[in-house]
């Protein structure tokens, strides 16, 4: 495996607009290792002028890329998939260095993230419309799909590769050009991906990466330019709302994958060992820093104590440490602000009467670490049941009847994903249909799949990524009336 120093020295740190270019004015900003707090790279700090350079490049090649045969577009995506797979260890190490997650988690993300390029390389040739006689007998109806045009993707820090590939993959497959603005905390992975795309034959200008410490100022002129036709964002609900407002001026196509508050519901007929195994996956995958992470555990009271004991034992096995350490199974949080947020939510719950069964305090010292934590007797008014914790904390509350459990699960303005554990097929279907979420995991703690539509309802956003539905977000429907 390549050393950390060798890897970091090989990663592009300039903007990527038809290749590596300096930011206007030459400014840079630091990227930190969450395990140590140390600076590991200085990356180009884009200006609004740089954003417009990227849009100029995207607009200049949009027609050519849209006219490129779908098979050719798909083969380029497939080549990038192969390149990511060949350099999987480098991507994994890079993500661990800039995001903090344990290496096994990073390796899983590389496999998951690369798969979006393979999936959409196959979907590129399956875009189709329809042809039919008009019902009234006069003329014919031809429905044609075509790319929406230049797109802007704004991606978060928690999955530095996958949150980009599940937007870039369908956009490029559909024939759209794209500008990616990655999170300032984790820009290096996306810059490496852009380099691989170029090496795989992607024409200059089709994909640009603009890194910046001033996201709002840099993206604002893009959202106000009529050449941009699509905005896709993954991040917090408040930021998503602001972006929807900004994009309304140009009536942009938008897709928003926003915050979550996922309930994990365990009924008294569940296989408790399987439920605990699923709970650990749903809670501690990515260190809890995932919008799909189980945020609150609703457990039927007759099995609540047994479930709690088993969950505490399972989560106690996780070893907190630097993500590059082979013994580490739980890495640090992304930054000091996130550490403060998690600590505040736990402290608020404890002050309100919650009991700490595991963890509950940051160890202090270098890095932004927080241990696996289990809370019980959490009162209904505690903030941790209403706000997305984005950390390795599992608050447990009880319920008596199925109706109470379903009502508690739905008692949130968010609606991304929910998890249900039961042996009853009737109950599983009944509860899954009653849950106000875009996705439901039944007896499964991990549900993300590039072949499935990912997205939420209510304040968790709109639009879908992945699956057959994912490419539709980047296609316009044109009706052609024929005689």
Automatic annotation (TrEMBL):
PROSITE patterns: ALDEHYDE_DEHYDR_CYS, ALDEHYDE_DEHYDR_GLU
Keywords: Oxidoreductase
InterPro entries: Ald_DH/histidinol_DH, Ald_DH_C, Ald_DH_CS_CYS, Ald_DH_CS_GLU, Ald_DH_N, Aldehyde_DH_dom, Aldehyde_DH_Superfamily
Pfam families found in the cross-reference section: Aldedh
Catalytic residue list: 257
Parts forming coiled coils: none
Source superkingdom: Bacteria
Domain Aldehyde dehydrogenase per the UniProt entry, residue ranges: 24-480
PANTHER family: SUCCINATE-SEMIALDEHYDE DEHYDROGENASE, MITOCHONDRIAL
Family label: Belongs to the aldehyde dehydrogenase family.
Full protein name: NAD-dependent succinate-semialdehyde dehydrogenase
Lineage: Bacteria, Bacillati, Actinomycetota, Actinomycetes, Mycobacteriales
């Amino acid at each position: 495996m390549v050393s950390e120093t060798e890897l970091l020295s090989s990663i592009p740190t300039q903007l990527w607009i038809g290749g590596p270019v300096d930011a206007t004015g030459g400014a840079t900003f630091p990227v930190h290792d969450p395990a140590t707090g140390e600076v590991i790279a200085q990356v180009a700090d884009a200006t609004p002028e740089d954003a417009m350079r990227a849009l100029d490049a995207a607009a200049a090649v949009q027609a050519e890329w849209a006219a490129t045969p779908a098979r050719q577009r798909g083969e380029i995506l497939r080549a990038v998939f192969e390149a990511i797979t060949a350099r999987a260890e480098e991507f994994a190490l890079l993500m661990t260095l800039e995001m903090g997650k344990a290496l096994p988690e990073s390796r899983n993300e590389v496999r998951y993230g690369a798969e979006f390029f393979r999936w959409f390389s196959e979907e590129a040739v399956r875009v189709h419309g329809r042809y039919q006689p008009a019902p009234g007998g006069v003329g014919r109806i031809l429905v044609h799909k075509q790319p929406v045009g230049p797109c802007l993707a704004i991606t978060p820090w928690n999955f530095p590769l996958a949150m980009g590939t599940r937007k870039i993959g369908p956009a490029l497959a559909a024939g759209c050009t794209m500008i990616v603005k990655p999170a300032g905390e984790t820009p290096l992975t996306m810059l490496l991906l852009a380099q691989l795309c170029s090496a795989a034959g992607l024409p200059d200008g089709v994909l640009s990466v603009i890194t910046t410490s001033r996201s709002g100022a840099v993206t604002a002129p893009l959202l106000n330019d009529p050449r941009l036709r699509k905005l896709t964002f993954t991040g917090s609900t408040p930021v998503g709302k602001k972006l929807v407002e900004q994009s309304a001026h140009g009536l942009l196509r938008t897709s928003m994958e926003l915050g979550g508050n996922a309930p994990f519901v365990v009924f008294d007929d569940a296989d408790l060992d399987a439920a605990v195994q699923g709970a650990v996956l749903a809670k501690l995958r990515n260190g809890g820093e995932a919008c799909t992470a189980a945020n609150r555990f609703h457990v039927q009271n007759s099995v609540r104590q047994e479930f709690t004991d088993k969950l505490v034992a399972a989560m106690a096995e996780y070893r907190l440490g630097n993500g590059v350490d082979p013994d580490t199974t739980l890495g640090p949080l992304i930054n000091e602000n996130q550490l403060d947020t998690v600590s505040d939510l736990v402290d608020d719950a404890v002050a309100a009467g919650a009991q700490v069964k595991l963890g509950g305090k940051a160890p202090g010292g270098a890095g932004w670490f927080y241990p696996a934590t289990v809370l019980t007797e959490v009162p209904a008014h505690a903030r941790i049941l209403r706000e997305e914790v984005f950390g390795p904390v599992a608050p447990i509350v009880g319920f008596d009847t199925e109706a109470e459990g379903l009502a508690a699960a739905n008692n949130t303005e968010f609606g991304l994903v929910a998890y249900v554990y039961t042996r009853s097929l009737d109950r599983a279907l009944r509860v899954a249909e009653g849950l106000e979420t875009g996705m439901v995991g039944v007896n499964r703690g991990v549900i993300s799949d590039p072949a499935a539509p990912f997205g939420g309802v209510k304040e968790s956003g709109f639009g879908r990524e992945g699956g057959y539905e994912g490419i539709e977000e980047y296609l316009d429907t044109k009706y052609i009336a024929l005689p």
